[in-house]
Design a protein that fits this description.
- With 359 residues, the chain is of the alpha/beta class.
- The chain has 13 helices and 13 strands.
- It has a seven-stranded parallel sheet with strand order 9-8-10-7-11-12-13, sandwiched between helices. A six-stranded parallel sheet has the order 3-2-1-4-5-6, with helices on both faces.
- The relative contact order is 0.11.
């Protein structure tokens, strides 16, 4: 990755207020790879992206279209160089609004970065337009060449860092955000820490050691997780390694976490939970398993302890958060906080206390 961040406009048409906009959310909150100049979502145009997302102004405007986003970037003195796709889409159909906006971006001279399962570089109208203008379309989810992949070796046992996995009770629940906040707050305490990104958004946010789990051939998933952790240890020797979770063990469409537990072999688990969420994300009729059941399943599979609960306040007012956290603490006996509201100090305290048992 270039040491200089890239000026980007982020496409999130019609999705910034939903979980389908989680890539855009992550980039508004934090990214080392880009300087986000504007977010595109005509349903929220005129708003400040950070103010809408977290009640904290970010200076990133939400624009109605590509032209407006480009104008905002120019006014900020940061002419855009990249158009970043910040939405998730279901199935293999590209929304017409995305194709139109991507075409406009290419015509304006912007490169494209996309984390979709549908590869924009293989969509001929966009590919031909990019080629004619000497521009690049980068599909982050394109699988690496097989010769570049790794099998699990068992060398994970050589890693001397304390490893914490941030797993979740559902998909799109805030695991990556919490993982980055843990990195930030560990570093604030003078402790070295590295994030292992496991999805396309963490890569877009600039995670130096990362893979995109759901782009890999299954035989190589464990090996790529181990390789990322090993690389972080060998090159940086951090005191702590935080591993971003994917999906959840019991999500019907996005089961995730088992490979992370098996291959990264974390010492502890921080569990991300949305108390107001009743059904698995995007799947009405599939009730979320109780928190106690999810903790039991994770601990049974891994042989390791869930040491803290991180709350996502989706569907709750901020005034409700303290009482909900106290209720979870009483139910589980574990420390609990909403890191976006309270900061992650409670979670960091739990990690440092648990780390004492590993010495």
């Amino acid at each position: 990755m270039s040491t200089q961040a890239l000026n980007a406009i982020v496409f999130c048409e019609g999705a910034f207020a939903t979980t389908y906009g989680k890539t855009a959310h992550g980039l508004v909150r934090f990214t080392r790879r880009y300087r986000v100049c504007a977010v595109i979502d005509s349903t929220l145009s005129g708003r400040d992206a950070g103010e809408f997302l977290d009640a904290r102004p970010s200076g990133i405007p939400i624009a109605a279209n590509v032209a407006e986003a480009l104008e905002a970037a120019e006014k900020a003195g940061r002419p855009a160089s990249h158009f970043v796709v910040g939405i998730a889409v279901e199935g293999r159909q590209l929304p017409e609004s995305l194709v139109t906006a991507a075409s406009e971006a290419l015509q304006a001279g912007l490169h494209i970065d996309s984390g979709l399962h549908v590869f924009l570089s293989e969509y001929q109208p966009l590919a031909q337009l990019a080629a004619s203008r000497g521009l690049k379309i980068r599909d982050i989810r394109k699988p690496p060449a097989v010769e570049d992949l790794h099998f699990f070796s068992g060398r994970i046992e050589e890693v001397g860092a304390f490893r914490t996995a941030v797993l979740g009770t559902d998909s799109a629940i805030g695991k990556r955000t919490t993982a980055w906040l843990l990195i930030r707050d560990l570093e604030k305490r003078g402790l070295s820490a590295e994030l292992i990104g496991t999805g396309q958004t963490a890569w877009m946010q600039g995670a130096e050691y990362s893979l995109v789990m759901d782009s890999l051939i299954n035989d190589f998933v464990a090996g790529e997780i181990e390789h990322a952790v090993l690389s972080a240890w060998e090159q940086k020797q951090p005191a702590h390694i935080i591993i971003e979770g994917q999906g959840s063990l019991m999500n019907p469409a996005f089961p995730g976490g088992f490979e992370i537990l098996a291959a990264a072999r974390p010492h502890f688990i921080v569990l991300q939970h949305a108390p107001a969420r009743r059904e698995y994300d995007g799947f009405p009729g599939y009730p979320l398993h109780p928190l106690a059941t999810q903790i039991q399943a994770l601990e049974l599979i891994s042989g390791k302890k869930v040491i803290a609960i991180s709350v996502n306040h989706q569907g709750m007012t901020r005034e409700e958060v303290p009482g909900v956290c106290r209720s979870i603490e009483n139910e589980t006996g574990l420390p609990c906080c909403d890191p976006l509201v309270d900061g992650s100090d409670i979670l960091v305290d739990a990690i440092l206390e648990a780390a004492k048992t590993c010495r």
